[in-house]
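Case study 2.
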Amino acid sequence: MSTTIEPPVDVHDRPRVTAQGFWQREGSDHAKRNLALIGVLLLLLIIGMFTRPDIFLSGSGLWQNEVVVLSQASSIGVITVGMTFVIIAGGIDLSVGAILALASVWCTTVATQSYGPAVMVFAALAVGALAGLVNGVLIAYGRLVAFIATLAMMVSARGLAQNISQSHTQITNDPFIRSLASDKILGVPYIVLIFLVVTALGWVLLNRTTFGRRTVAIGGNPEASRLAGINVRLQTMLLYVLSGLCCGIAAIMVVSQTWSGSNTNGEGYELSAIAAAIIGGTLLTGGRGTIVGSLLGVLIFSQITNLFIVNGLPLDIQRVINGGIIVVAVLVQQFRVGSFPFLKRTAAK
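Prediction:
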C-alpha cells in the first residue's frame, strides 16, 4: 500500500508576501497617509476661516497669508529633507539648527570682506557640508551614537558661531542675498522655489537612485545591508554630509529673510524638522519614510504655527501645544506600525 506524504503546511501552504506585493502595499499605505495629511491641511484652513475670517475668507488676504506660511516653512523644509534621509537610515541629527547658525555667521563674515554673493553661498554650503562630514565620521567610523555625536556638534557649532560673531548680529547688505526673500516669480518668493526644488531633488534621490535604496535598506536592517555588499559606514557618512548641506542652503535662506547672520539663528529647528518628518510618516526606528510626507508635515506644522500667531496665542502656550503635537504624532505612528504585521519587525529593530 502506497503512502502519500503531504508537504508541510508551513512551507508550501502558508500565505506569502512577494516583494512586488510588499512594495504595492507600502505605496498604497503612503498614498492613504498623504491623503489624510492633505485632509488635515484643509481642516486647518477651515479652522482659520472660523477664527480669522478677515484673513482666510479674503482672496488677497488668504493668498498673502499662505505666501508668508510658505516663506516661513522654506528653511525648515529644506532642513527636513536632509533630516528625512537621516531618520530613514535609522539615525538622528540634533545639530541642524546650530549648523545653520554657524553657516549663517560664517557667510555674513565673508560678506564683510567684500566678497560677492557667490562666495557667500559657497561659504555657507561648505560650512554645512563640513560640519555634516564631522558628524558622519564620528558616527560611521568613530562608532559614536548619533544622538551623542550630533548633540556635541549642536553645542560646539553654536558656541563657535557665538565666538566668530562675538555674540553680535552681523548684517549683510548684499542685494542678491536679500532679493531671495523679497523678489518673486508669479507671486512666489525665490526662497519658496528653492524649497520646492530641493524637495523635488530629494524625492528623486530617495526614490529613483541607488543612494535612496541603500538608505532605506540600512534603516531597515544595517547588518543585512552590510552582508548584501552595501558600504554601511560610507553611506551613513554621506547621509550626514547631505543633512549638513541642507543646513547650508537653509542658512542662506534665513540670511535672506533676516538680512543677518547670528548665533541664535535656527534655534528649535531640529525639533521642528524631526516633528515634520514624523508627522509625514517617517519612522523614528528607520527603514520607512517619504519626501512627500515630510513636505506635507512641514506645511501642517507651519500652518498650525501660523494659526497660533494670527489668533494671538502666547508663545509659551504655542510651545506646549507643539510639544503635544509631536507626542501625539509619535503615538499615532507607533499604533499604525503595530497594526501592520509586515512592519512589526522594523518597529522592533
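The first strand starts at residue 170 and ends at 171.
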